[in-house]
Amino acid sequence: MQRFLALLLISILVLGGLWLFAPAREANETAAPRREAATALIGEARRGGVRLELPEAIGEVAISEAARPDAPLVLIDPGHGGRDGGATGVGGTREKDLTLAMAREVRAALVEEGQVRVALTRDGDATLTLDQRADLARRLGADLFVSIHMDAAPNAGASGVTVYSLADIASTTEAAALAEAEAERVGQVVSDADAPVEFLLTDLALRDQMSASAQFARRILRRAEASGAVPLRPTPHQFANFFVLRFGQTPGVLLEAGYITNAEDGRRLASRAGRAPLVEVLAEAIAADLARRGGA
């Protein structure tokens, strides 16, 4: 009997201790995201770089300086990377290498002008998920998001630039297929972790985001057409429900810079000189769009 009472007393003490420590643990878990958010804000206020507690693939993200410390921020996303090589072009060129080269060139052009701050989702051969790319845009509070890709097609004659902006309904079967392929890579569009984001992104805010994204896409295409040096698809502005655009929570576009499976596009995109006209157009469109919205 005494042994039974002793065991009962020990059980009561253990359960009581767990009950007492549970609120403290919940408080710590609640405080952790707040501390993480605070770290992001502190880093964003600096003019040099920012370090966020993100998965190891992202690590430290550098933000370029601008003439003003509060200048608007564009996040440039070189598509693919690491284990995900993307499309393979004529001569064995890899999409992931070309998108990174072009992203760095756009950054250099913007840094030289000094009107906006620039960050890249990756500045090396890192593997990033679409969730990580969109999450980084949210954490940095990016004012604009540009995802750079290069297309591939069974038809070797397909060529030219396409700019995709966000919409609930795809504009063409091609745009729908591209968004569907992205969705397959992402999996469930709204996970339990994403649910608060989807809740906060009200319908009105999403409509504004879609409208601003479409305006930015048209700005790029107007400048490209005016340059006379950037080949465009017959219908260069397309719409689709891209995860990385929707959940970045900022205006943005997905730019397909051309078809690396096409001989002419492949040569153009494989060299710095060949990419230069599109790089110039994109850098000018980014600066103009942010200036129009009162940032620069």
Report the CATH architecture.
3-Layer(aba) Sandwich
Q: Strand sequence of the main sheet, in spatial order? A: 4-3-5-8-6-7
What's the N-to-C terminus distance? 80 Å
Radius of gyration, taken over Cα atoms and rounded to an integer in Å: 23 Å
Q: Rough shape?
A: globular
Tell me the number of helical segments per DSSP (H or I, 4 or more residues long).
9
SSE arrangement, N to C? HEEEHEHEEHHHEHEHH
Give start-end ranges of low-pLDDT stretches. 17-57, 186-194
Biggest beta sheet summary: 6 strands, mixed
Spell out the CATH superfamily. Zn-dependent exopeptidases
Q: How many domain regions?
A: 1
Number of strands: 8
User: Might you state the CATH topology name?
Assistant: Aminopeptidase
State which percent range the strand residues make up. Answer: 15-25%
- Give the % helix: 40-55%
Overall structural class, as computed from helix and strand content, comes to alpha/beta
Keywords:
single chain; 296 residues; alpha/beta; Aminopeptidase; six-stranded mixed sheet; 8 strands; globular
Structure in words:
The protein is of the alpha/beta class. The protein has one domain: Aminopeptidase, CATH 3.40.630.40. It has helices at residues 2-45, 95-113, 130-140, 173-186, 195-200, 203-227, 243-246, 263-270, 272-292, and strands spanning 49-51, 60-62, 73-78, 117-120, 144-151, 161-166, 232-240, 252-259. Strands 4-3-5-8-6-7 form a 6-stranded mixed beta sheet, with helices on both faces. Strands 1-2 form a two-stranded antiparallel ribbon. Strand 3, helix 2 (95-113) and strand 4 (117-120) form a beta-alpha-beta unit. Helix 2 crosses helix 9. It is globular. The relative contact order is 0.16. Mean pLDDT is 80; it is low at 17-57 and 186-194.
